[in-house]
Amino acid sequence: MRKIKQWTAMGLATVMAMSLSACGSSKSSTTDSSSAAETTKAAEATSAASGTTSGEPVELKFSWWGGDSRHAATEEAIKAFEAKYPNIKVTPEYGAWTGWEEKQSLNILGGNASDVMQINWNWIESYSQGGKSFANLEDYSDVLDLTQFSPESLDLCKVDNKLMAVPISLTGRLFYWNKTAFDEVGVPIPTDLDSLYAAGEAFKAKDPDMYPLALGQYDRMILMVYYLESKYGKNWVEGGQINYTEEEVKDGMDFINELEAKHVIPKQATIDGDMADSLDKNAKWIDGKYAGIFEWDSSASKFKKALEGSVNKPGQEFVVGDFVKMGDNDGGFTKISMAFAVSANSQHPKEAAMLINFLLNEEEGVKICSTERGIPCSKAGLKILEDNKLGDALTIEANTKVMNYSKFTLDSKFEHNDLKANPDGVYYKVFGKLSSGELDSQAAAKELIKGITDTLES
After folding, report:
1. Distance between CA 35 and CA 289 in Å, rounded?
2. pTM of the entire structure?
């Protein structure tokens, strides 16, 4: 699997267009002729798909994870697809992220996966079994218009020259803040390390239970890499090896410790004691005790919805922040947010490919799902949203900032389950022990490097 490449926005006329261009090929322009050609090709694919079914009953299973708004939109899109193809019945299976990969990996490796699966990019390498677990979607290009995706993005989804999935969106992490909480404390939203540390001091003085930022173990790993990239200016992994010395990683661990010491983030035991499955469901986030997150641009809407739904503290304002400067370089990486794959064991792979095409390339499906899975990689999909002025403004703003800022690459094993699984992954163990004091920064750096090296070499 090649490393993910960085595709930046190409300076289109509007913020919407600039943001939506993130997953497209650098050769794709917004001229009237090319747009018309893309629309025509997508329409031709739709027409081709409409004539593929024999009329015999077909049952498909479709699995995904996400928040409530993604679930609702996807179920609505399924109903629209079933209305278009009355002989096809789609059974949904969905849930929150916690525990989802573990469950689905067992299904994939056991041959019991859903016909259509929303997958993480790293699943292609982790669970494809050399290209055997997922269907080669190039075999169904008569009903799934692959020309709507850049060759670069498709190449990142191939194993043994077989297309294991099609990319849905490109994403990166950035900072989001509860502006209401910052206004109450009387401190500006952070833009650099000094203002971040100053916010911690101010929040502690206002209320010891309030923090300007909250991070779980995996969040701490990603923010530490962001800090190191900002300071040292190099990729986390290069050539299949960690690109940082033990002393440099210790520096990153010291940074995480300093965030706790300066009351920027709570101890991990505090977050665990909140008894919430995820931060968006944490009462301290919902009621303004935790005032910031470092999150994927494709996932932030559920945090916004949770905050705005607070019963105890209504009227809170959720905003996209600027990147916090932590060095001379612009830290952070982008990745394929997620992709759609078809199980190699599906009895109806062509119909499964038709469902993917409906969701990503066809007007009805694209309009319904909008930006629930981020800014579309499909050129037809992004044009539909642009033409109809659709899409979550928050997601568009955040994605534009990410694409214009983050320049580093993500190694394909960064999100390997051996590393990010909760609670047994290397990230969870190391950052949990660091926070509890079981490991000092030197020992934590050594254990992290060993765990990641073992995974990279496996």
Report:
1. 47
2. 0.80
